[in-house]
Specification:
By secondary structure, the protein is mainly alpha-helical. It has one domain. It contains seven helices and two strands, in the order E-E-H-H-H-H-H-H-H. Helix 1 packs across helix 2 and helix 1 packs across helix 3.
Length: about 110
């Protein structure tokens, strides 16, 4: 259940809005953001939302990016449900450490 507490709008950081307000529109964009040397850009890969289809495409096309998908603060539970069974222990561990995953398991 989401809190009904009003939050201040996110502030841009060097021209890039963080905290899940921007949208990653493609798997290619996610990979580019994650591989950038500019911290503001790769932070977007950890904070910005993307459609489920984008996350699934990243997982399918680039197995080396699965950990970074799991690390994203906005990745939906439906994607985490896939990644929790990943062959890579680091990916599974990242899923199990996420607060959203833990809350989903204790809610029911």
């Amino acid at each position: 259940m989401r809190s009904s507490v009003a939050r201040a709008p996110p502030r841009p950081l060097n021209g890039i809005t963080l905290s899940g307000t921007a949208m990653i529109d493609s798997a290619d964009e996610f990979r580019r953001l994650r591989e950038r040397e500019n911290p503001d850009e790769y932070r977007r890969a950890a904070h910005d939302e993307a459609p489920v289809e984008v996350w699934l495409e990243v997982i399918r096309r680039w197995p080396d990016m699965r950990f970074w998908v799991a690390q994203n603060k906005t990745v939906p539970l439906s994607v985490l449900e896939i990644l929790v069974n990943d062959p890579d222990e680091k990916v599974r561990d990242m899923v199990l450490r996420k607060g959203s995953w833990q809350r989903s398991r204790s809610a029911g």
